[in-house]
Amino acid sequence: MKRIVLYIDSSSVNDATRHYIDIIKKAALDLGYTFYFSESINNIKFNDIILTIVPNNFLKALLLRPFSKTLFWSQGIEPEECWLREKNFFKYYAKNIIEYVSLRFSGMQFLVSEAMQNHYKTKYGINFANFQIMPCYNLHHKKATYLNLEKYDSPTFVYAGSLSAWQNIDETLQVYKQIENIIPEATLTLLTEEKIKAQALIKQNDIQNAQVRYVSLNNLNEELLKFKYGFLLRKDIRVNNVSTPTKMNSYLSSGVIPVYTDAIKDFLKHINLNNFNLRLKSSDSIEEMANTVISFEHNVRDFTDLNSHIKNIFNDYFNDKKYIEQIKIKLKSYLSN
Predict the structure, then answer these.
(1) Which one of 138, 254, 275, 278 has the largest count of C-beta atoms within 10 Å of its C-beta?
(2) Cα 144–Cα 146–Cα 149 angle in degrees, nearest 5
(3) Whole-number average pLDDT of the chain
(4) pLDDT interval class at 118 (50, 70, 90)
(5) Closest CA to 244 of 76, 23, 83
């Protein structure tokens, strides 16, 4: 029986990647393939099909198993992410080469957004022949858990995730501070492992009604049920344009209204909450962003239709069955050749 082997370091399997991998695995098993994990290239046979989610692993597999069929998942545009972190020209250009090789010589590609596909086409001139676009997500729709509409009576805000600069945490806290100034009963909860840093940022921004907690992914859905709004503010840069942050999925799965910017191109197309949309302009000032949220809080009172809009998004965009069927068709086409 043919094997698909995920060649990966264990550190690369986390809350953000596990569900994506599971979707690919389910599609492979449905087609009759076996699915294995391996941290060593030595455990991969020459006739195995190799799946990688890290460009460096793909390059190693290409060199040491040159005749194997390959699948490559691009989680993000790594050269641009590296440049944001380190501003190192050598690393940036080296990662460009490795990324190009991974995309150009893999037999099937998994991309997280149409914007990512367009980015690679423009940057490298690659026209993908056999690829799957699937956003990053890891939670399902929990309709029954937030049908109690009382949660929408209070202006409770949450931010879930890391406090990295590219996550735009500084601007998020500044926007919330402006909201708190006008709506003093507003509260903010930061769900993050970086508790000391979070407390320092709260103090730095003179925020009065804030607390810091951390919950595991297993408990995140239940924790988010307590909140009305969830922050997902990103700057209009290429790294964000092509991304599909799992925060959007996490918030919506618990009926949290996302407060997000138009920088994430895939969300412009697929996230539509109708009159419950709180999509801000990345070009707006802190005060303008805050005023948009304040206006929403003061004017939108009836949330009975919110669930139906969220359900539509999950049926169309965060749908396991849909992606498994699409992947099966494309895997079968590639692997049967």
Answers:
(1) 254
(2) 125
(3) 93
(4) very high
(5) 76
284-303 CB burial, b ≥16 within 10 A, e <16: eebeebbbbbbebbeeeeeb
Kindly state the DSSP code that residue 38 receives in the 8-state scheme. E
Residue carrying the six token digits 């999950």:
314
Kindly write down the DSSP assignment for every residue of 141-206, as one continuous string.
--GGGG--GGGGGS-EEEEES---GGGTHHHHHHHHHHHHHH-TT-EEEEE-S-HHHHHHHHHHTT
Question: Which DSSP letter does residue 304 get?
Answer: T
User: Which strands form 70-74's sheet, in the order they lie side by side?
Assistant: 34-38, 3-7, 49-52, 70-74, 108-111, 131-133
Q: How far apart are the first and last CA of the chain?
A: 16
Q: For 209-227, what is the mean pLDDT?
A: 90
Looking at residue 164, its pLDDT comes to 77
- 159 is written with which tokens? 């931010």
Rounded mean pLDDT of 168-180? 96
Spatial CB neighbours of 142, under 8 Å, sequence gap ≥ 6: 221, 225, 253, 254, 255
266 touches 114 (CB < 8 A): yes
Average pLDDT over residues 273-290: 96
Tell me the mean pLDDT in the region 62-68.
Answer: 95
Least confident of 156-170, 173-187, 269-283, 289-303: 156-170
pLDDT at position 144: 45
Closest C-alpha to 38, from 48, 30, 29: 48
Q: Are strands 210-213 and 131-133 parallel, antiparallel or unpaired?
A: unpaired
